[in-house]
Amino acid sequence: MFTPLRWAALAFVLLLVILAVFAPLIIATNPVNQDIANRLLAPGSPGHLLGTDEYGRDVLSRLVYGARVELLVAFGATTLAAIFGTLLGLLGGYFGGVFEFFTMRLTTDVLLAFPPVILALLIVTIYGPGAVTLIAVMGILFAPKFARIVYGQTLIVKRLEYVDAAKAFGARTPTALFRVVLPNISAPIVVQFSLVMAAAILLESGLSFLGLGIIPPAPSWGGMVASGQRYMGTDPSTILIPSIVVVLTILSFGLLADALRDLLDPRARKATHG
Fold first, then answer.
1. What DSSP designation does 38 have?
2. pLDDT at residue number 19
3. What is the predicted pLDDT for the residue at 217?
4. How confident is the model at residue 267 (pLDDT cuts 50, 70, 90)?
5. Taking a C-beta distance cutoff of 8 angstroms, is the pair 106, 225 a contact?
6. CB-based contacts of 272, cutoff 8 Å, min separation 6
7. Considering only CA atoms, which of 213, 248, 234 is closest in space to residue 226?
8. Which residues contact 90 (CB under 8 A, 6 or more apart)?
9. Least crowded by CB within 10 Å, which of 136, 137, 167, 173?
């Protein structure tokens, strides 16, 4: 269930969370302070474990504070997507008919018809970059991922005996939806949450790379990759270090999603144990 690789992924995610939460206590260097005299120092330089960037800013400090930004934006966007998508999926799956048309066909399917990156580029270009814009945009874009899963699970669960029993004992519709149906479809929602976290970090990094994400000089991993590409020939560490962190973070959330699926899905547990 939790293989050594998955334990490593969990440890890496926990490390990122700890660094993001306690960044001011762990890193004394300000991530936006410039020191042109010490620009592009190599990793391992005195006082700069991972070196400095083209403005003399400490790379380790920018990575740690960038983790705070990345996780905050990704978590906010994923939470918004989970709430909005779960509500759409519950209403469409439970009531069907007109509710299904408006929640699944008119809303979810329309959003799924557009590539997320293209739609995100369009909206961010119109409303401007920034953390709040990114959270709102990605929350809307990733909501269909939750809606489709919740819709399918609701179609199955609403026909089961315990839902009929709750109705027979006088449970009102909100009670049936949020206290009977929702708890019994929570496992795939949790798994999807981890997957969307990875997708949100990737999309935010891509937008920041294009200059449409977090506004400089605030640190962001995508912005660090964009800055480092100009010095690939002379100092490849400026692009390699943030790129590796992005890849490891996305991979870790993907591995966690696999572990959660095996942990929460009885069928996956049976398949794992043969």
1. G
2. 92
3. 86
4. low
5. no
6. 1, 262
7. 213
8. 150, 154, 177, 178, 181, 182
9. 173
Instruction: Pull the structure tokens for residue 263.
Output: 């942990």
| Phi and psi, residue 159, nearest 5° | -95, 0
Per-residue pLDDT band at 215 (split at 50, 70, 90): confident
Give CA–CA dist 80/145, Å, rounded: 12
Cα atoms found within 13 Å of the Cα of residue 8, Cβ hemisphere only: 5
Residue 115 phi/psi, 5° resolution?
-60, 130
- Output the CA torsion sign for 173, 179, 181, 185: positive
The answer to whether 231 and 51 have CB atoms below 8 angstroms apart is no
Q: Tell me the per-residue pLDDT of 35-48, one tens digit each, with 9 for 90 and over.
A: 899 998 899 988 88
Give me the residues paired with residue 48 across strands: 45
pTM score, whole prediction: 0.90
Mean pLDDT of the chain: 89
Q: Are 141 and 108 in contact (CB under 8 A)?
A: no
Identify the sign of the CA torsion 35, 41, 45, 51.
Answer: positive
Alpha helices in the chain (DSSP H): 4-21, 23-26, 59-95, 97-100, 109-112, 116-127, 131-157, 161-168, 173-175, 186-209, 221-228, 237-264, 266-272
3-state SS, one letter per residue, for 179-223: HHHHHHHHHHHHHHHHHHHHHHHHHHHHHHHCCCCCCCCCCCHHH
CA 7 to chain CA centroid, nearest Å: 19
